């Protein structure tokens, strides 16, 4: 199976995977269909579907089927069916941010910081626990921009514009009280033992991710500057998502969807560079069975 997925993808690959994704969303929502759930499912589908185009934008997948397959399977394994609107919006906004910040058009990247700030602010309104994304963008601006102060100003301007619009609308609608959920550190709680046990089927995948990071930094000097830059970008993005997951996930395991995209790229690269074919095949099946088991345990509430 690994050899099959290692073949080069073509122009028809992404539509096929998106079609399969649509099927997943429909199947998991067909028994709980109403207008609200349909809207959330639509936003979720759009956000995840945009993720497929981010693979081409970030260009770390060697144009093979493997990362696309892993991404699809991560969605299958981690998507609970009924999703909070905050997570749905976050999946959508994350895809937009990745597309903007990894655009090959330098002019678009430079002029997109106001839009990125607006997206981050909108993301925070729907899901306050995603505030680490703002930190990620600030780090990205400082690390990559020639005009750091100007681009930070553009980013903050985008945030302020959305915040001002939001407060104006809320004031007009006479919502004048402040929800404490919008304070970043108000809902933090460490995971309990039972919550860790529920993640046990994902242990092989987590260990592989850790090995992938070790392997990357062990061979860091052998990689091209552009690969190092893109991989670092992906890691910083992953750290922002991981911060949200560690601090706020608790038993809301749908938060793990935020890591589906970067994990797919990191694992696909790790599998590609494993020394023996049987190890590659075994590792791939461990990921698949781990996700299937996790899906079964969470869907049927076995733990």
Automatic annotation (TrEMBL):
The chain crosses the membrane at residues 12-32, 38-56, 68-101, 113-143, 155-176, 196-217, 283-300. Pfam families: DUF6427. Coiled coil: none annotated. InterPro entries: DUF6427 (IPR045625). Keywords: Membrane, Transmembrane, Transmembrane helix. This is Beta-carotene 15,15'-monooxygenase. It comes from Chryseobacterium fistulae.
